Amino acid sequence: MKYLVRDKLFAIGDDYWIEDEEGRHAFLVDGKALRLRDTLELKAPDGRVLITLREKLLSLRGAMTVERDERPLATVRRKRLSLLRNHYRVTMADGTELDVSGRILEREFAVEYDGELLAHISRRWLRVRDTYAVDVVREDADAALLIAVAVCVIRMAERED
């Protein structure tokens, strides 16, 4: 399943819809303005908060936390000893890890678990400017989590740039 994300709207305080392949509203990204740290909520079309993304305070390398139901779900960080600048590690609360690598700023990267592709993020499928697709490859994958991971690494890469 592919989800379309509009790139230009990633400013704090902006709200925007992520659409599925058929153009239906799949998720609402609600940017929380006037917060001490960068905070976004990924909501279902009915308004339920599915995932909360928060900038981690006092982190040396920069990190964001991913929360579900106000409990930590994952932490996203740039990979420490990577020669590739565009390599991130997602450490899940249960200790499992996802790898994110590719050309983040160009919106051409992948999310993998133990070498298996979970999602591919790309602009090349689209003709619409400032839009990229999150293609969730596995049917049993958590689409909200994978979209949240994509949003986190893009925000972090843009800050490092």
In N-to-C order, the SSE pattern is EEEEEEEEEEEEH
* End-to-end Cα distance: 30 Å
The number of helical runs is: 1
The largest beta-sheet arranges its strands as 1-2-3-4-5-6-7-8-9-10-11-12
Strand content: over 45%
Q: What gyration radius follows from the Cα positions, in whole Å?
A: 15 Å
Outline the low-pLDDT stretches. none
Derived from helix and strand composition plus strand pairing, the structural class reads mainly beta
Shape: globular
Tell how many strands the DSSP assignment holds: 12
Determine the fraction of residues in helical runs and give it as a percent range.
Answer: 10-25%
Largest sheet: 12 strands, antiparallel, barrel
The overall pLDDT, averaged over residues, is 85
Note the quaternary state here: single chain
Describe what you observe in this structure.
The chain has 161 residues and is mainly β. It has one helix at 143-160; strands spanning 2-6, 15-20, 25-31, 39-43, 49-55, 63-68, 71-78, 87-92, 97-103, 108-113, 116-122, 131-136. It is built from 1 helix and 12 strands, in the order ββββββββββββα. The longest helix is centred in the last third of the chain and has 18 residues, at 143-160. It starts with a strand and ends with a helix.
Keywords:
mainly beta, 161 residues, 12 strands, 1 helix
Topology:
Layout: E1 2-6, E2 15-20, E3 25-31, E4 39-43, E5 49-55, E6 63-68, E7 71-78, E8 87-92, E9 97-103, E10 108-113, E11 116-122, E12 131-136, H1 143-160
